[in-house]
Fold this protein.
Amino acid sequence: MPGAGGTTDQDVEKLIELLRRRDPQAMPLLFEALGRRAFGLAYRILGDGPEAEDVVQDAFLAVWRQSDRLDSERGSVAALLLTIVHRRAIDSARARRKRAVHEVSLQPEVDALDEVDVAAAAIATLDGAAAHRSMDLLPDDQRRVIELAYFDGFTHVEIAERLELPLGTVKSRLRLGLEKLREALKARTSSDVR
Amino acid sequence: MTCAEVEDLLGAFALGALPPDAHHELLRHLSSCDAHEDVVALRAAALSLAASTPERTPPPALRDRLLDAVSGEAGPAPGISHQPTTIATGRRPSLGRIRLNAVAVAAALALLAIGLLSWNVVLQVSDDGAAAVPVVYEFEGASGASGRVLFLESEALAVLQFRGLSPLPADRVYQVWTIGPEGAASAGIFNASADGVARIVVSLERDLTTAIALSEEPSGGSEQPTSDPLIVAPLEEF
């Protein structure tokens, strides 16, 4: 699977090997390769300020500290890093909305990636341009609920309340939108084989 | 939670949009039921959203804090002392402080004018004079493209960062080539983001590589370059 920025499996394996050895050179390389992408995601969710920086720092450290668990068959390190950035940023965004962290955190141990995440990371398409174009293909109503869920951290119930829609409609739009996104990405991947 | 209920919530689950209790309950169901084969693909699609956001340069201080944080946790690196050292490049303030654990540094700068390119070469060496890592090459192209190569010689690994690249149509890609005595070999293909930035990690054997080149190729890449290179960046001996 190509990783971030066209990174090949072989390149990812080398980075992972450095991380697993806790080689001091691993982090500069990892940050060089993925820092802008990680910060872009945190910024999209949290905006400017120390929260976004803290989220990115924590996510890189989480990968570093779990590096002995990384291997090339457990998904792209880029995908796993972005998963952690996303979770932490969403938790921060939810906490910012003046709710107690323990009520809004999806998982008490945010770094504990479940098997679904690991498997998904292995097949996720991280081509930013393709993902952006694929999102543009979605109907507005589906794109809207997906953005509220993924980038703003609202639950499906909160989205229904916010948009004054039946809960079933929100669930359907989330599912249909994701399926269309998946198909669009699949089509782009097969027409742009790395 | 029944299979029908799980299917009903799968989209929200994949996007992380379930309340904690429902999220955990659904995870428990998945751990004992393999009927929901779409879940991984949906989660992967959701994860691709992370890549859809524009990249953004983090504050330099963030990198410094991060490297400081891991410097005390790094495992032993063979052949390198463990005295933290600050590297100041002097010529390139944008590089800022590069804090590398265990590297004693002398920095040498050279500016080479080679065709359309000019390079700043930053050579970092350890106490015993052997090449240490990483070595940073910086380049500017007359076409507006610029970037740098961060080269980890001990691992034959390099991070190439390009700026000022024009986005290409869907049927075209950028392709990186390593140039050596036996000709050009593909090092990877990529597309530039909307802001003209791209980076790619490549395998690079320094002894077998005399230059790095970038060309525009048909989607999927080419066996050999089929267009004039946009950049030819010689790696000078030093």
